[in-house]
């Protein structure tokens, strides 16, 4: 991440905390066991990991100030996602990254997945939330640190090519940004997530697990 990014493109906004608290309540709490070890890769302002209820929580980022936003009791690792050496092999139940892979060259994304696969337990999960280029072409490169292009098709294929199987895929999971005039209200977010389609959805969500595990049907959310 370039110097000054958190002072320009990604300044602190209290509305994000509202969004992530709602996402935990209406979505992630049903997918993460309270006895899990959860890793947040590229945690930024730590809104996701601060809301997680789990036995062990780990936050990883290269931004020097991320620990200032971290709640007590969460392990902090100052490192790139291409260096997961401080994490024990087969120790992670649930890994998560929000708006990360579009900031990485494909070679770094590949390295991160190879390392992460070794850190996940055999029944572990990886969930990625990020812009879907197919639905936000005109805005995608407004963020000057975006270097890779991903759609729900390409990210799924990339995961499969690196030893994962996709078990959940939502091409339009959330609107692209909170930088709009739309209200940020927890019950409204819950209602949005419950809809059978996602109006204005430009961020995708994909969940995967290491291959070699018996799979069920991949759940694909309808798109407009």
Number of helices: 6
User: N-to-C terminal Cα separation, in Å?
Assistant: 33 Å
Query: How do the helices and strands follow one another from N- to C-terminus?
Result: HHEHEEEHEHEHEE
What percent of the residues sit in helical stretches (DSSP H or I)?
A: 10-25%
Strand content: 15-25%
Output the radius of gyration.
16 Å
Mean pLDDT metric: 89
Strand order of the largest sheet: 3-2-1-4-5-7-6-8
Could you give the topology of this structure?
Blueprint: H1 5-8, H2 15-26, E1 37-41, H3 47-51, E2 56-61, E3 75-78, E4 92-98, H4 106-119, E5 120-131, H5 152-161, E6 164-174, H6 186-194, E7 203-210, E8 219-220
Parallel strand pairs: 1-2, 1-4, 2-3, 4-5, 6-8
Antiparallel strand pairs: 5-7, 6-7
Helix pairs in contact: 2-6
Which features does this protein show?
single chain; 224 residues; alpha/beta; eight-stranded mixed β-sheet; 6 helices
Report on this model:
- Strands 3-2-1-4-5-7-6-8 form an eight-stranded mixed beta sheet.
- It is globular and about 40 Å long.
- Strand 1, helix 3 and strand 2 form a beta-alpha-beta unit.
- The termini are far apart.
- Helix 2 crosses helix 6.
- By secondary structure, the chain is α/β, with parallel strands linked by helices.
- About 2% of the residues have low confidence.
In short:
The protein is of the alpha/beta class and 224 residues long. It is 24% helix and 25% strand.
């Amino acid at each position: 991440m370039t110097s000054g990014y958190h002072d320009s493109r990604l300044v602190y906004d209290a509305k994000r905390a509202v969004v992530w608290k709602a996402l935990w309540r209406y979505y992630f709490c049903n997918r993460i066991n309270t006895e899990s070890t959860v890793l947040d890769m590229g945690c930024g302002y730590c809104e996701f990991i601060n809301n997680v209820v789990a036995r062990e929580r780990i936050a990883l980022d290269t931004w020097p100030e991320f620990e200032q936003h971290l709640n007590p009791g969460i392990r902090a690792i100052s490192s790139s996602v291409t260096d997961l050496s401080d994490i024990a092999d087969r120790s992670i139940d649930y890994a998560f990254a929000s708006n990360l892979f579009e900031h990485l060259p494909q070679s770094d994304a590949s390295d991160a997945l190879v390392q992460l696969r070794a850190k996940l337990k055999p029944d572990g999960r990886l969930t990625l939330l990020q812009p879907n280029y197919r639905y936000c072409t005109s805005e995608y490169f407004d963020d000057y640190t975006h270097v890779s292009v991903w759609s729900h098709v390409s990210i799924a294929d990339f995961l499969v090519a690196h030893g994962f199987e996709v078990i959940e895929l939502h091409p339009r999971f959330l609107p692209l940004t909170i930088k709009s005039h739309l209200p940020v209200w927890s019950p409204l977010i819950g209602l949005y997530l419950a809809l059978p389609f996602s109006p204005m959805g430009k961020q995708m969500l994909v969940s995967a697990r290491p291959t070699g595990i018996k799979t069920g049907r991949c759940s694909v959310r309808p798109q407009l």
